[in-house]
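Trying the structure run again after the queue cleared.
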Amino acid sequence: MTNPTIIFFDMRISYRPELRYYTAGLITTQQGGEKDHHTSVIYYRVSDINESAQALKKNGAVFIQEPQLVAKMVDHDLWIGFIRDPDENLIGIMAELPLPENSES
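Done. Tokens:
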């Protein structure tokens, strides 16, 4: 019997969790609904959030929240989108997009 979560990561995200290490970030508000507040959300940092979202959709992932701007930081804009794995865990993709160059020099 094959675990549906492993299939999800292999086929939809093309990622094996045991192969990479990620720096943890801090999100100050709880994400998702009440049922999500007893688990941790895994965030995957991507360089191009729109391209990553399209690739996930092409592989069958369904976004419960399309990628959107969630915070304007001093040096970047933070974009996040959410999908669920087969066990209904919340999975986030995030991108820290650089601010446009200031045209006033």
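The domain at 39-98 is CATH 3.10.180.10 (2,3-Dihydroxybiphenyl 1,2-Dioxygenase; domain 1). Worth checking whether this holds up in the mutant runs.
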